[in-house]
Amino acid sequence: MSGQEDLLEKVIRRDLKALKIRSYQDDAGNIFADIKGNEKHAPSLLLNAHLDTVKPGENIKPKIRYGIITTDGTTILGADNKAGVAAIMEVLKVLREEKLPHGDLQVIFTVEEEIGLMGAKMIKRSWIKADLGYVLDGGKVDTLLYKAPTQYNLTAEVIGRAAHAGVHPEDGINAIKVASEAIAKMKMGRIDRETTANIGIIQGGHATNIVPDKVRIKGEARSHNKAKLRKQIKHMQKCLTQACLKSRAMVKIKVENMYNSFSLDEDELVIKIAKKALIGLKIKPVMKMTGGGSDANIFNELGINTLIVGVGAQKVHTTSERIAVEDLFQGAKYLLEIIKETSARKNHKKQKDL
Ligand SMILES: [Zn+2]
What we know:
Number of helices: 9
Mean pLDDT: 96
Structural class: alpha+beta
Low-confidence stretches: none
Shape: elongated
Number of strands: 19
Radius of gyration: 24 Å
CATH topology of the largest domain: Aminopeptidase
Oligomer: single chain
Bound molecules: zinc ion
CATH superfamily of the largest domain: Zn peptidases
C-alpha cells in the first residue's frame, strides 16, 4: 500500500541487479534504472509503473480460476499497478535474454501514486532522460488513454456555535445543518462530458446533546477544461459561503491543485508507436480519455509526451479487482512491441540537434 513499498522496492532492485541493471532511488523512494540501448538513433523511452496500491491491500490471497486472477473478495488484488511492474520487469528480462536491439530506456517505478501522485511529484525534470513516455497503468490492453483531467481538491471547515441541545439550542449554530444545506445545493457527480465533482468526506460533531460547532468537508472537482473546472470550484465555494452567511456560520475554504491535465494529439509519435504495436498484436486500438489522474499527468507536465497504456487490470480500486492471465502476457508482449517499434524509428528531435 502507499507508504509501504519497501519490500517490493527490495525485490525489484534485487531482480534488476540479477539482470545486471544498475538502479538507484531518490529520497522519495522512486526507483530509477537507465538501460543503454544499442540503437543510437532511436528515441529514448521512459517506462513507468507505480509500486503502491490502494486499501484494503494487506494479506492478499490471489487465486486463479478459469484463467482469471482474483482475490478472496476481502482485499484488492493489486494488479493496479503490479501488472505494469510485472510487464516492465518481464520485458527487461526478454531484452537481455534474446539480446534484442532497442534504444535507451529509462525505467521509473514510482511510490505513493494512489495518494496524490506523491512520488512522481518529487521527480525533477533534469532526472528524466527520455524523449517519450509510457505509463503502464491503464485498464484494457487495447485502450490508449491520451487525455486526462486537472484535479482540484476542496477542503472546508464550517464553524457554527456549540450549545446544549436540550437546554439552550437557540444559542447554537448547527454546523452539520449548515454544511448539509451547502452540500445539498452543490452540483455533483458528472457535471458534463469533461467535468466531475464529488464530496467524499464529512466529519464533525461530538454528541447528540451538543449543537455541533465544527464540520470538515473534503471534496474534489476534475475537468479536461480548465475554465469549466474553475467554474465548478467557484460554484462549490459559493454554495458554502451562502449557506454560512444565511445561518451566521463561518467557513474556511482551502482549494489545492493536485495535478494538471494533459491531452496528446493523435499524430504524436508516442501514440503512433503504441497503435502500431497493438496492430502488430492484431488488437484494434481504442482511443479514450480518462477521468483519473496518474503519474502520466506529472510526466506530461514536465514536458515528456507520455501515454497511459493498458495492462489488463479490471475493476481496480475494488475488492473485485481482477486480471486475466492472458492479459498479463499480452501486456508484456505489447510493451515489447512498443520497444521494438520505437527502436525502428529515427529520433528526429535528436537529429535536428546535431
Ligand atoms: Zn494505478
